[in-house]
Amino acid sequence: MSKENYNVIGIMSGTSLDGVDLAYVSLMYKEGNWSFKLHEVQTIPYDEAWINRLQAAIDFDDQALARLNKDYTSLLSGIINDFIISNKIVDIDVICSHGHTILHQPQNGFTLQIGNLQELASHVNSLVVCDFRVQDVVFGGQGAPLVPIGDRLLFSEYDFCLNLGGFSNISFEVGKKRIAYDICPVNTVLNHYANILGHAYDDGGKIAASGTVDSKLLGLLNNLDYYKEDYPKSLGFEFVKEVVLPIMDNSTISVKDKLCTFVVHSAMQIAKAVLKERQEGNLLITGGGVYNSFLIEKLEEFMPSINVTIPDNKTIEYKEALIFALLGVLKLRGETNVLCSVTGAKNDHSSGVVFKT
């Protein structure tokens, strides 16, 4: 499928469990350059039962995972169909879906994103491209991050693209190579402690801002082995559950102080990653963490010579869904959509599974 204009629905569900992000987008290819326009967008939150099930799935056996995969595919199909109907969308070339990551263990040659079954195409009655990560792991890569090809093709005016979601991840060019990796957890940890206080999340970072940094805990977090590793590297929820939360829970300080300390820790690690590459430049920040004013304040404090850009709300919230739409189109065109320079795979490749109705 090679043409100049594509109408696509891109779909993303992130590790922060905010819900399913859907974006109806137009992608235009002209004279070797890609551009985009975001049209209808929507986030469908998970109900409590689904949040609990997705959080618990890391410990499921194979049989329970298979049932979850089937049930989630049905859930996702319904969400997509409702989105199409409610927005009166009639012109769709392809639906491109990331699915939801349950297990991510590239070191063991394994990653699992549920919701990527053939039934998805049947239920939504459309061409579907999905399951973008598995092939990269087979090729010896981390299976992540996948967004950097979109950063290169759609947001080339920025020196750095930073996403603040369940984890923070960054991408940038070094010479003619795109480099990208996961820096540290963000909302996976912050939401966990906000939940303990009875909140879905720390609105604007207000709770964290009311706390005090604990130097002992901050030192333990900053000294984690992951931060000493060179890229390519990536994180999964396993890292949060097995490494970060035990350290946090072992501290006797208040929850608000834990939130404050972790925000400062995240900002320090992000600033360290940026300033390691260059002391000045333009940084685009997207993802739900943008709305944590305390985190943004700390980032600007720790890297004052970096020009921070926060775009419009659609781009903030739906950039990943937009880029998965692009990944699917690139797959249909037979073009590279995964960069070995960021995942560590043996070569660049065109990843994803294509399902016809």
From the structure above, extract its key features:
357 residues, Nucleotidyltransferase, domain 5, five-stranded mixed sheet, single chain, alpha/beta, 13 helices
Write the layout of secondary structure elements.
Elements lengths: L4 E9 L6 E11 L2 E12 L3 H9 L5 H25 L7 E12 L4 E5 L3 H7 L3 E3 L3 H5 L9 H7 L5 E5 L2 E8 L2 E9 L1 H10 L9 H4 L5 H8 L14 H14 L4 H23 L3 E6 L6 H10 L3 E4 L3 H20 L7 H4 L9 E3 L2
Helix pairs in contact: 2-3, 6-10, 8-10, 10-11
What does this structure look like?
The protein has two domains: 5-143 and 342-355, Nucleotidyltransferase, domain 5, CATH 3.30.420; 151-314, Nucleotidyltransferase, domain 5 (2-Layer Sandwich), CATH 3.30.420.40. Helix 6 (187-196) runs antiparallel to helix 10 (255-277) and helix 8 (215-222) crosses helix 10. It has helices at 48-56, 62-86, 118-124, 134-138, 148-154, 187-196, 206-209, 215-222, 237-250, 255-277, 293-302, 313-332, 340-343, and strands spanning 5-13, 20-30, 33-44, 94-105, 110-114, 128-130, 160-164, 167-174, 177-185, 281-286, 306-309, 353-355. Strands 1, 2, 3, 4, 5, 6 and 12 form a seven-stranded mixed sheet that branches. It has a five-stranded mixed sheet with strand order 9-8-7-10-11. The protein is globular and about 55 Å long. Strand 2 (20-30) and strand 3 form a beta hairpin. The protein has 357 residues and is α/β, with parallel strands linked by helices. The model has no long low-confidence stretch (mean pLDDT 96).
